[in-house]
Amino acid sequence: MSKSMRVIIVGGVAGGMSAATRLRRLDENAEIIVIERGDYVSFANCGLPYYVGGVIPERESLLLQTPQSLRARFALDVRVGHEVTAIDREAQTVTVRDLRTGIDTVEHYDALILATGASSREIYPQVDGAAPVATLRTIDDVDRITAALDGLTGTGRAVVVGGGFIGLEAVENLAHRGLAVTLVQHGAHPLSPLDPEMASVVVDTLRSEDVDLRTRTTVTAIDADGVHLDDGTTLAADLVIDARGVQPAASVAAASGLRLGPTGGIAVDGHQRTSDPRIFAVGDAVEKIDQVSEEPTLVTMAGLANRHGRTIADVIAWESGLLDERPQDATPATGTAIVGVFGLAVAMTGWSEKRLRDAGWPHRVIHAHPVDHAAYYPGAERLTMKLLVDPDTDLILGAQVIGRAGADKRIDVIATAMQAGLTASQLARLELAYAPQYGSAKDPINMLGYIADNHASGTTDSIQWHELDAARDAGASVIDVRSASEYERGGIPGSLNISVDDLRSRIAELPEGELIVHCQVGQRGHTAVRILRQLGRDARNLDGGYLTWRAGTAMREPVLTP
Amino acid sequence: MSKSMRVIIVGGVAGGMSAATRLRRLDENAEIIVIERGDYVSFANCGLPYYVGGVIPERESLLLQTPQSLRARFALDVRVGHEVTAIDREAQTVTVRDLRTGIDTVEHYDALILATGASSREIYPQVDGAAPVATLRTIDDVDRITAALDGLTGTGRAVVVGGGFIGLEAVENLAHRGLAVTLVQHGAHPLSPLDPEMASVVVDTLRSEDVDLRTRTTVTAIDADGVHLDDGTTLAADLVIDARGVQPAASVAAASGLRLGPTGGIAVDGHQRTSDPRIFAVGDAVEKIDQVSEEPTLVTMAGLANRHGRTIADVIAWESGLLDERPQDATPATGTAIVGVFGLAVAMTGWSEKRLRDAGWPHRVIHAHPVDHAAYYPGAERLTMKLLVDPDTDLILGAQVIGRAGADKRIDVIATAMQAGLTASQLARLELAYAPQYGSAKDPINMLGYIADNHASGTTDSIQWHELDAARDAGASVIDVRSASEYERGGIPGSLNISVDDLRSRIAELPEGELIVHCQVGQRGHTAVRILRQLGRDARNLDGGYLTWRAGTAMREPVLTP
Prior knowledge:
Two copies of one chain form a homodimer.
Chain A: E1 6-10, H1 14-26, E2 31-36, H2 48-52, H3 67-74, E3 77-80, E4 82-88, E5 93-98, E6 104-108, E7 111-114, E8 118-120, E9 133-134, H4 139-150, E10 157-161, H5 165-176, E11 180-184, H6 196-208, E12 212-214, E13 219-223, E14 226-229, E15 234-235, E16 239-242, E17 246-248, H7 251-255, E18 279-281, E19 288-289, E20 296-297, H8 302-319, E21 337-341, E22 344-350, H9 353-358, E23 364-368, E24 384-389, E25 396-403, H10 407-420, H11 444-456, E26 462-463, H12 468-473, E27 477-480, H13 484-488, E28 496-497, E29 515-518, H14 523-534, E30 539-542, H15 545-554
Parallel strand pairs in A: 1-2, 1-7, 2-3, 7-18, 9-16, 10-11, 10-16, 11-12, 26-30, 27-28, 27-29, 29-30
Antiparallel strand pairs in A: 4-5, 5-6, 8-17, 13-14, 14-15, 19-20, 21-22, 22-25, 23-24, 24-25
Helix pairs in contact in A: 1-8, 6-15
Domain Rhodanese (chains A, B): 472-558
Protein name (chains A, B): CoA-disulfide reductase
Keywords (chains A, B): FAD, Flavoprotein, Oxidoreductase, Redox-active center
């Protein structure tokens, strides 16, 4: 408990900067040094794609703080353009290289905080004569990209490799700048954390925005001829964005002997402490604990970095006697996330069906397609919602929500419920704010809860779109309970159309054996299942109705939209 | 347990219709009769003001179901234009009057569900030659109002009496129709569930929309000369909307000897059962249990009515052996609500500071003014937020959120957290979906949690705007830690301006005694308090900063905006 402890923080963006400013508010006397490899601290990394697209017009608005402003308000010693190249844990020192001069100095620490972030797993080599290849993670990156864009004449052509969050933001913003954009995706669809029938909505949007989408494809080389794909195609390009995955930037930590976890991230305890008690770590460089599996996981979100950075400051201050109460351990991570795709909000929390299935985790699946606010009030937009539920505990395992309005609200409510330990059925009981321009008297969240409750009480039984073929092979018949006019606009091949309103009177027309009932979104199907089961028939509802079935089956083939 | 039980439901809108359709899905054999006094069932009562304003252009879109559509899908016997005038509980019968013919019939029930709603407490008498005086609760009301509006020539003048939810929606929509609108409010400000410094934001919006607002005023008479106020003013009017409060429509229930509660609503148990085991009640006619006080309360929200209607159906089906599990008791009500006021969303849940103070309930108050999404992304709108916290348990007692974007999301997340029993500090740990167009890496919700955590841990101490004068009388000095240019644009009279960034170097200039520190919204004030307290000074942060102080003090005088 020194009167003036010396804290060195490596990395000056989300987690590092939250630790620095919180620590100053708790300890006016600490010496706090922030070492940042880049030329900027506390910049708006989530805004970078939108600056490229011109949505954020001023470069200055990305720069939230400067070393000068942080010195004035928080008495921080911020050293940009400096890199920590080594840690001597025994001596409690770091080697700091001034990247302009190349000169190394050695700095002592009482506590060290590693906020080194993530780095691209690999980057395509820049070949002579080839289009510029850039990642999109730093101010330097966007300076390079905007320089390339400013040099273009006519309609430029961009290839984005990797349809994750940053990849999709790059696609949208390059299109917004007027470029013809191709998105190359290794997997079956963009946004691999989504299940295919949900990603299908994103694919439809990309199509309608004239994005050239190539799924189940990889880049084999980038040279003066263009971008070569493994299907033999070569794409002409003026700019290539490499938006493939990232990994924890943990090399300096590893070289100093700090323990890494199974994911490759720095292993920390609930106080963000590494295997060395004087060294903490935070942000994309560290492992989190997954809420569903309670296993180590990687979640690269700024919100977690900020919160965990604050925790580190609290722990250091508590150990210095400046806080009375032991700081609480970090709560598990859910991976709650959202990305905008041409005005469509695509949001998720927890685990997907795919991930649960791969892990052999029992799960119940619920799809719903309600509108974001009362249908009779102008401007209502359809939501595409999915809820994953543990059938034994009724706890929420995950959710996906997509829509042009109100999706961010619904994922946040579900994420809050999930983190608070509410059951899926309890979503029915949430008293949410309703007026016709903001929601419905039965909010979409309540609707998910009502469906979950029907499952938990055995009042309904459903089948998923990807289980339909097997059920039909086993003798089940598909009954389309929509109106005749809906049926005529398109339905499931081989289905029989009897409107739910005619079901009681036309019951004799139904085939023998199991009945798979469906409507457009699942609601009338539920009523039909209730009628049929009370009349002694074996019936299940096709979950999410025709919309979910159509979306899911559309993703079975590679997407090629040249 | 009859094979075909006879269920009579009195009232065919939210709660009654939810009970009817749910019961049919659970019991194909029940005879379900819905008696509705009006000519319409299941109409969009929350949409009525917007139809008056022309925002909802088609009258048909208000009519969600018809007796015919409900017969086809749910085999319901819906009788509109019929009123239940008496209940004979001994005989298990109701007297039903056909309102067109005046003929009474007597109908037997096995179970009776009262969903009679609310009615206006009193209505101004319609005097010869006076402008039409209307409430705004039924299709008949809007037909009457639109007929009056269609007959107007030139700019019409409307007077709305009562600034509750429907009153404000009436004001907005009549203005939208081109009328000059006066709002007469008995209390100090519209929306009495809000605290004054929050209502101040609503008042500013009404002012900017040229609404003539008269607070602390009542109507003494409405006659051919106009609307007479108790301050001697007479307002010319072509239309008067009486939007004063409602009360439970419980007269038939009371006449039959059913127990009413202390609020005047029908008393029910957790299964919505009245004091007669064969009679249930739901919706605005019944009492709820308040989540904060656990006492009976009135909350007139459609969402609760729908959910409780479903519960009644579950209970009836369970008693018939059609559901295995005993339905869960109703959860307490929080009064979560939202209203749109000229594009401003005004949302609340739980108790206000005023209500807590009046009840002598210990409480901690937190104000914050964050923007709804990352400030560097275009279109960010300021939120005005207030959180009420139990200082002993850290549980959330209530919240108010106002803003042009993102307010509905934030109130729903807080309401969910409150209903799930999260503490205020736990809001800091919520992992919410972040991208720059949807939120912030430290979401406004997280910010409230961080402030709450600072209070719980003793890291900060604050003072409310209405406590400032007393503190100054006791010798405290006000230090404005904003920049000089902010200070020049307006501050608290008698305050001393020293920017937070200069505080360390200018510490000697501070007066002796307690220091009340403030900035614009409270954040820099917190940093300043931390500096001052570590330097040995007695300092508190003016909660919510200058914005909250200015809003609160502005509501101390009657509002008159002629």
